[in-house]
Amino acid sequence: MSGVRCSELIKKAKFISVLTGAGISTGAGIPDFRGPNGLYVTKRYDPEKVFDINYFHQDPKPFFEFARDFIKLEDSIKPTRAHYFLSELEKSGKDVAIVTQNIDSLHQMAGSKNVIEIHGSFWESHCQDCGDLFHFEVMKQKIYAEDIPHCGCGGVIKPDIVFFGENVKHLDEAFRVAREADLFFVIGTSCVVYPAAMVPTMMRGDIVVVNMTEVDLHLPNVVLSVKEEIDGFFEDVRKLL
Q: Alpha carbon of 216 to those of 81, 126, 151, 181, 211: distances in Å?
C-alpha cells in the first residue's frame, strides 16, 4: 500500500525535491560509511585522518590512499534503480531537484540534471596554492601516478569534496528547493549529519521517507515512512506510475 500512496503523491506533485544519502548508493556497491561494512566501522581507513581538513593540510597521504580505492570502485559501478527512477521523473516532465550528501555523482550518471552536491564530489579539483582547476580525468591520472598529486606550481591538489572542518556547499540553494517543493523525498539517509539534516525542516508540504533503518526526522508533515529496500520500493512505484 505504501507504493500506491507514494505514486499518488507523485502524480499530484509539480515540483519534487529530494535529499539523498549513502543508502541510495549501497545497491551500486558503495558501502555506507556508517553501515556495518562502512569506513567508520571497519576502520580500514581512519576517518579522523582521511576526511579532516586540518590533517589533510599536515599530511594528505591518507586521503589519497582512500581516493585511489574510491576511484577504482567508481570505475566499476553503475547507478541503481532508485537513481534512474529519479532521473525518469525529471524526464517525465516533473520539476525535480536533488540535494545529495553523496560524492559519487551517480545521480548525474543516471541522467539527473538538477543535482545539488552539498558535500561536493571528485568531478573537479583545485590546487591549494594557486587555485588552478583540474577536471576529473586529469586528476584521476594524477591520483594513480602520484602518492600526493601536485600542481605545476608545487601546491597540493585537493578534490572539491567537503572535509570535516569545511563548510558544506550550496546550502542556501538546498534550502530554497526544499521550501519551494510541494513533495519532498528523504532517501537513504538517517538525517543525523548536519547541516544536511536541516534541509527537510525547510519543507512545508508532504514528506516521504524511504530508508532501511531508522531516520531521525520527527516532523508533522512526514506523510509516509517506508522501511523497505530502496531499489525494490521505487521499482514498485515506477510500475504504478
A: 25, 35, 42, 21, 11
The per-residue pLDDT for range 124-183, each reduced to its tens digit, is 999 999 999 999 999 999 999 999 999 999 999 999 999 999 999 999 999 999 999 999
Cβ neighbours of residue 178 closer than 8 Å, sequence gap 6 or more: 17, 19, 99, 184, 199, 200, 202, 203
Q: Which domain holds residue 191?
A: 1-28+80-119+167-241
Given the residues 57, 83, 119, 126, select the one marked as catalytic: 119
CA distance 235 to 81: 7
Q: Are residues 182 and 133 in the same domain?
A: no
Same domain, yes or no: 221 and 143: no
Question: Which tens digit of pLDDT belongs to each residue from 17-73?
Answer: 999 999 999 888 876 555 555 554 445 667 778 889 999 999 999 999 989 988 887
Looking at residue 127, which CATH number applies to its domain? 3.30.1600.10
CATH of the domain at 210: 3.40.50.1220
190: its cell numbers: 538517517
Check residue 41 and give its pLDDT: 47
Same domain as 235, residue 149: no
Give residue-wise pLDDT tens across range 92-107.
Answer: 999 999 999 999 899 9
Q: Please say if 107 is a catalytic residue.
A: no
Q: Are 87 and 100 contacting, i.e. CB atoms less than 8 angstroms apart?
A: no
Same domain, 145 and 226: no
CA-angle at 80, arms to 137 and 93, nearest 5°? 95
- Asked if 210 and 228 touch (Cβ cutoff 8 Å), the reply is yes
